[in-house]
Give the backbone structure.
Amino acid sequence: MKNAFYAQSGGVTAVINASACGVIETARKFPDKIGTVYAGQNGIIGALMENLIDTSKESSADISALKHTPSGGFGSCRYKMKSLEDNKAEYQRLIEVFKAHNIGYFFYNGGGDSADTCLKVSQLSESMGYPIQAIHVPKTVDNDLPVTDNCPGFGSVAKYIAVSTMEASFDVASMAATSTKIFVLEVMGRHAGWIAAAGGLLDDSIPVVILFPEIKFDEKKFLAKVDANVKKFGYCTIVVSEGTQWPDGRFLAEQGTRDDFGHAQLGGAAPVVANLIKDALGHKYHWAVADYLQRAARHLSSKSDVQQAYALGEAAVNLAMEGKNSVMPAIIRTGNNPYTWEIGIGELKDIANVEKMMPMEYISDDGFGITEACREYLQPLIEGEDYPPYKNGLPDYVVMKKHIVAKKLPTFEV
Amino acid sequence: MKNAFYAQSGGVTAVINASACGVIETARKFPDKIGTVYAGQNGIIGALMENLIDTSKESSADISALKHTPSGGFGSCRYKMKSLEDNKAEYQRLIEVFKAHNIGYFFYNGGGDSADTCLKVSQLSESMGYPIQAIHVPKTVDNDLPVTDNCPGFGSVAKYIAVSTMEASFDVASMAATSTKIFVLEVMGRHAGWIAAAGGLLDDSIPVVILFPEIKFDEKKFLAKVDANVKKFGYCTIVVSEGTQWPDGRFLAEQGTRDDFGHAQLGGAAPVVANLIKDALGHKYHWAVADYLQRAARHLSSKSDVQQAYALGEAAVNLAMEGKNSVMPAIIRTGNNPYTWEIGIGELKDIANVEKMMPMEYISDDGFGITEACREYLQPLIEGEDYPPYKNGLPDYVVMKKHIVAKKLPTFEV
């Protein structure tokens, strides 16, 4: 009987803990095959430093509460393992730690980088004579993993952005006669416009202009579009991706702004866009930057996102029990209207370091909105609500006890 | 039998429409005494320009849906009536419009300025021989009206800020080991720290430093506090009011930032604070500016806020039916734990132009947090959830039909 190791990787989401819950609850159903599930304290560096959290010391109720708790319950990290050639010692250390703690299953919950790490661990472990079944559990608000229909975490961010854009638009619509006519919301997505696209899910009674990182910023065309919207609707809402670029490739936010001390610009893309409009069209504006609020907003998660995040954690353990290795459970869409899906399986070699970009046919011809095909894809992902329980007016989120297992190996410098 | 006029004033909130719903639904219960409820299109300028919305053309279902719809359903405006001496013509125009449409009840839903307008209309109408019962319905996220325990709109913003601060803090806590250690959230409240104070409602396992507009920014003391939190907790969350000032009285946001074209600074207080920390302590940061998202977030309204907003609209009509004039229904707190309240009554002369500031005994000695007295006051205001219905993943908010009544008077320039 082997133990299992689970780690969270990269930027956390509103539902990555639901995957953790799926892994741990499902592993507990195989007491004959899986001993203890250890979780990496702060992700993979928890394994490298031999800081293993004993999840068996967490109560069933607390593990269950992970399903409605945002963030990384065991801690995550931004730590990209170097290539095997550049730093074989790190991979060897991982396997030594796994060996020392009799770990035979490695569940890694993250995006493209962690899929790559997962694959390498599996390969190296065989050559080192200590085989480990490595299963990747998909997670990323960037929604850029191949094979899977979507990535857990994305649907909830999309719902947050769609709802927030709608609410702020209602607000501006009621003030526009004498006051604010422009509202700019900056959203995440440095490389792809998946998140910004969610602003296009409102019905067309609400004028929303989207600035995608995929489309170079055309100031003149943009201002004409905003002007037309203000003339027609009395106001205009803009959803701008943090990754939107000037024609020369600089990010919108890099406008060369300096403070009194000569420090580089402080702001984001939203104030830049708002000021352009003010200067050209004279309208009063407001702007918001959602930043972490969007990916942490478990209070507004999409129900399908929570369900899929859990199901993928569950499936990862089931795949391990079936003897699978170097794979990732994936969401396979089987129908729209109603949205139906099942769990499929992808090979890590087809997933590691492959980025799924937003298809250009999802962006409208003028570059400022989404197409019907995009709406068909996105719509099911924001559907359903899954509210956390509340206590004293605040969500009753759980904090893990994080009991660290006694170390068996010498210290390792990360 | 007289008609009634209802108008929304100033910045809108998540629950001002619940007050509108309370006014209209209650007025419909007095068919012998109240004819039609007219609503001002875009607030008081709707009355000045004789743009009156006939609310009897809105279905019962739509009026009921106002209770779960944020923003100003009939439109609001930022339009401060000048003093009686400076612009008597405007007040006279109001009364002429009321007279032309047989309006005997004036329900004005707003903050301190609108309470003042309400009072003047009542006074002038008597001297002009066309008595109007003027009732003010309190509303403002600034929470600065006297007499009432709190102002509808504030409780929901407070809940949004408390929940968002909590969620972002959970996020940062899981990333802090290798990445972001500082999260800064900028919140509304140019003159008073009521909204910022809501960031203090988390339990003390979460390190939150609050910057209030009431306390001049002490950079050295602030950095020491942040440093201590990072050392103790591994991270630190900062909630900064947009009204926070440097010792010389400039707003934090006015740091003299200029872009390439010499335009004044674009950003808010949050990036300024984040950069100060980065420069002094070297920590990686993220920042968010909630702006309109906070006051429009009906998806996360506090239940007591929604109930009180409705109850105050209802009470306004009941007071009118009792023959009252120049008054405002108010929330009177009758107990904490459990929170109990009843509707009281305030005289507009005691309310107009009186600002209720945040008591200094609500701010902790170090100036960066709230006291137990403040917590006792705030806690009940964020309690309970009151979710809107959803359709296709988005809140099912209502849009009024806004049938404009035929004009009877010559045009008036506003």
Remarks:
- Chain B is about 35% helix and 20% strand.
